[in-house]
Design brief:
single chain; alpha/beta; five-stranded mixed sheet
C-alpha cells in the first residue's frame, strides 16, 4: 500500500476534480504491476495496473490488488473499476480509504464482495486521507479546502512602500509556491494585490497540464483594466458584488468542482478569511529581508489560534523558514 500511495503522486496536479489514486497488483508476494490515475479521461489506477500487468506478460488472475481509494462502481469518463477487477480475476482487494463521494455511493467494496472477491479497508487510511484531503473535504462540505500563503519580512511586513513592488523571497521559495499553485484548482487575491503587484498567478516554474482559475475580489470595481492577468480573461473570475460573502463564494467555487483554493492576497484579504474561520491551512513564509516602509501583516500565533489554526510543522522553502498551520482537530 505504501508503494500504491507513492505511485498515486504521479497524478498530482493533473487529475482534479478526481482524487489521486494508486494501485499495486501483488502475486505470490511479488509486485507484478502498478498503476495510477494520470489524467482526466485516462485510465483509472486499477485499469492502468491491469494493463501494466498484461504488457509485462503477467496475468493479474489470482493477484491481490492494493488500492488507495475504494474502486468506483459507476460509469463516468471510464467504465467501473469494479468490473475491471472482476474481469482481471483478482482474488482480493485491499483498500486504504473508502470513497465518500455521494455520486459514487461508495458501494465498490460491496459489489466486489457480492462477486466473491473479498475486500479489506483501512490499511494506511490516515496516509491516504492526507493525500486526498482536498477531495475528501470537498466531498464532505461541497466547498474547497482553503490554503493561505503569506510571506513576511524579518519584522512581519508584507510589502515595502518605499520601493516598487518586488518579490523579497528566494527563487527556491518561489518554486515551492508554484508547486503549491499546481496543487490547487484556484488562486484568490484581492484587488489591491492585482493593482500593486500586477501578478500572473499562473504556474510557470514547475511542469503542469493545467492552470488554476484566478479569482480576484474587487467589490468596488477598482481593478486596473490593463492588469496582465486580464489579458487571459477566460481563466479569471472577477468578484464585483458590493459585499462579498466568502462562504457563498466558496460554495459557488465548490459547485464548479474547485476542491482547493490558494489565497495569495494581502493582509486585508487574509484576515477576512481568518475572521470567518474559513482557513483550513496556512503557510507563513519568513524572510530575512527588512522593509524600509513596512506594511504590517498584523498576524501572529495568537491571531491564528483564534482563527482555529495550530502550528503543525516547520520547513524550509529555498532560503526561507516556513511555518505550516492547520485547522485544529
Amino acid at each position: 500500500m505504501e508503494r500504491a500511495l507513492l505511485v498515486a503522486e504521479r497524478g498530482r496536479g493533473k487529475v482534479s476534480p478526481n482524487p489521486l489514486v494508486g494501485c499495486v497488483l501483488v502475486k505470490n508476494g511479488t509486485i507484478i504491476a502498478e498503476g495510477w490515475h494520470d489524467h482526466l479521461g485516462g485510465l483509472h489506477a486499477e485499469q492502468m495496473a491491469i494493463h501494466d500487468a498484461e504488457e509485462k506478460g503477467n496475468s493479474p488472475n489470482g493477484a491481490t490488488a492494493y488500492v488507495t481509494l475504494e474502486p468506483c462502481n459507476h460509469f463516468g469518463r471510464t467504465p467501473p473499476c469494479t468490473e475491471a477487477l472482476m474481469w482481471a480475476g483478482v482474488n482480493e482487494v485491499v483498500v486504504a480509504h473508502a470513497d465518500p463521494n455521494p455520486t459514487v455511493r461508495g458501494n465498490g467494496c460491496s459489489v466486489l464482495n457480492q462477486a466473491g472477491i473479498p475486500t479489506r479497508t483501512g490499511l494506511m487510511e490516515s496516509e491516504a486521507r492526507e493525500q486526498m484531503r482536498a477531495f475528501l473535504h470537498w466531498c464532505e462540505h461541497r466547498r474547497p479546502l482553503v490554503t493561505v500563503k503569506l510571506a513576511l519580512d524579518a519584522n512581519g511586513s508584507v510589502d515595502d512602500r518605499a520601493a516598487e513592488s518586488q518579490r523579497f523571497t528566494s527563487m527556491g521559495c518561489l518554486e515551492k509556491v508554484h508547486e503549491l499553485r499546481r496543487d490547487c484548482d484556484a488562486v484568490l487575491v484581492g484587488v489591491e494585490t492585482v493593482n500593486r503587484d500586477d501578478p500572473l498567478l499562473t504556474v510557470r516554474m514547475v511542469p503542469t497540464s493545467r492552470q488554476p482559475l484566478r479569482v480576484v475580489l474587487d467589490p468596488n470595481g477598482r481593478v486596473n483594466p490593463q492588469a496582465t492577468l486580464l489579458k487571459d480573461a477566460e481563466g479569471v473570475m472577477l468578484v464585483q458584488s458590493d459585499f462579498t460573502n466568502l462562504t457563498s463564494l466558496l460554495n459557488q467555487l465548490g459547485d464548479q468542482n474547485i476542491q482547493r483554493v490558494l489565497v495569495e492576497g494581502g493582509p486585508s484579504t487574509v484576515h477576512r478569511f481568518l475572521d470567518e474561520h474559513l482557513v483550513d491551512e496556512l503557510f507563513l513564509v519568513h524572510s530575512e529581508a527588512v522593509h524600509r516602509q513596512p506594511v504590517p501583516s498584523n498576524l501572529d500565533h495568537s491571531v491564528l489560534s483564534k482563527a482555529g489554526l495550530r502550528l503543525a510543522d516547520e520547513t524550509v522553502w529555498g532560503e526561507e523558514r516556513v511555518e505550516h498551520f492547520v485547522r485544529g482537530r
